[in-house]
Write a structure and sequence with these properties.
Length: 119
Amino acid sequence: MTPKELRALCLSFNAVAEDFPFNPETSAFKVLGKLFALTNLDARPLTVNLKCDPEDAVRLREEHPGLIVPGYHMNKRHWNTVTVAGGLPDRLVRELVEDSYDLVVAGLPRAERLRLDRP
């Protein structure tokens, strides 16, 4: 997956905005102001921090050592750093991004979640 494809994937979800709260190089993808993906699209190798269910986070790290590691500068229990261009199938990366988005949406207040469901 290329940086352009990763950016397009993150922006394809409902109510997502790209923000640069830390520096001009670090893209923060947020749904209704809540972070679900953090990446430097110019970095090599390309990595992205994604929210993850704690049990799944540990399992994924064990299944993909070196490619999925505890979240860099994040809560290690709830975030993984995923090496996007390091040999992981694009399908898995897409699923992990979608899971991160879904976890953040699930934590939103009910009224905001309902607004996301409207076309």
